[in-house]
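User: Teach me something about this protein's shape.
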Amino acid sequence: MRFGPVPLAEAEGSVLAHAVALPDRRLAKGRSLGAADIEALSAIGMGEIVVARLDAEDIGEDEAATLIATRIAPDHMTLSPASTGRLNLHAAVDGLFVATRARVDGFNRVDPAMTLACLADHVAVRAGDMVATIKIIPLAVNRRRAEEAAAILGEAPAFAVKPFLAHAVSLIATTLPSLKPQVMDKTRRVLDDRLRRSGSCLIRESRVAHREDAVADAIRRAIDEPGTEPGAKPGAELGKRPKLVIVFGASAVTDADDVIPAAIRLAGGTVDHVGMPVDPGNLLVLGTIGDVRIIGAPGCARSPKENGFDWVLDRLIAGETVGATEITGMGVGGLLAEIPTRPRPRARSKVDGSEETARPRLIVRSVVLAAGQASRMGAAGHHKLLAEFDGVPLVRRTTEIALAASAAPVTVVTGHREADIRDALSGLDLVFAQNDDFASGMASSLITGLDSIGAEADGMLVLLADMPGVTADDLRRLISAFEAHGSEDGGEAVVRAVYGGKRGNPVILPRALFPALRRLEGDVGARHVIENGNLPVVDVDIGPAAHLDLDTPDAIAAAGGVLRG
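Assistant: First, the predicted structure itself:
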């Protein structure tokens, strides 16, 4: 192919290199110029034009892309028509995209004029997602080179989409006095959501003591006894769906002889692997009994955020072989510490030019409590959090302050009039946690917030949504005080806002108090937990804002607010 400017009179039959706008239409890049086109270009004063002139052995960009695509095995993918040298491939089903790097690299090394890009290996996709794209860089390429590149894709698949196969899943959750039932309820909901995309379903849930004999018995029953698909008629058959057993332990696995791996062996199975080089997800257990796989889920799998559990689950439900070899090969790319739930690595070093390394920075998660019923607002039914200050709803004003104070995720606990609160917060990057038990009082909202902040949090900053006087600088001062009194083992001090020696809000509650917080009931806050916690309490004076929470129409009006909803 010869590329460059030519006199307009010699351009007929050549391929236009760049789009040209005419008074009545547009000539697109890649167009084969005809006599009428030459005449139109001459009419606007062009005497020279940049084109590509194909040799006998050349083919155009779209023909080359199509030739290459015809050598790709469909494997649950659809191909778009080639246009401007690009041809896209999309998943035809929900499944797992798999790729062979050596084959894709081999294609791309035939000729830089022809490129193939695809998703990373072992990525879950939905039907319609783009999974790969072929792009021919110049306007034409040598046919022999295109056929050489296509042959690489024809010899063996470079990539494919493996459809998810619906499984019948049994959930076993172990219990300890420290684990609240609400946590296990949330775990089931999160697992349900994970399974839904594959058409899999939970057919049973068993909650048993955290002992190997109890877990082993539950595993046997999950394998031997038929379950019931949700919504199915009594006695309905599950067909021949493969079975999968998932065990969530109330306590993390710390040894190959710990409760879950020991229970798999006691139930007659084999422990294939304990641990995995993916973080979050290190503490996963994988076992087998007959043709049934058993996953001992790590604690991070209670969260919907991506972790190592997803990597193993997706492979299993796509029919992939998963064992020690596959799990130990997940280390490259397995550090997931920068996902939204964990915006900082656990051990970020602070470098000041010397060789001294500072201790890890403590992680504080902010929780805005916005679930209350605003019962003191009178018969008119106004919601105090929807009152506007300078045209901004109170709940949005407070939440924006929390977002401005730290780069960490902010959780908003909703309850009463959830839809209105969410609408007032639309467009903000938040984590929402719905407290269905909001009528019982503040304790349930504290627990809901605690469940949402992630296992890595060293402290929870609790901010009431009706405190318009608090500033982002106030919150940063509280966080700095918490970090200053922390240790490498996590937060060890309570930090609370005060004014004039009188305690107020917000407050940062350290990890050491989390178990006691989970035992709270009724319309109580954290005061008694703090008083009985035997931990240092650090007071930070933030001025009158510490006491300004708005509970009545008069208080809102006095603070300059206008009731709206």
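Now, about its shape. The two ends are 69 Å apart (CA to CA). The longest helix spans residues 181-196. If you'd like, I can walk through any region in more detail.
User: That's plenty for now, thanks!
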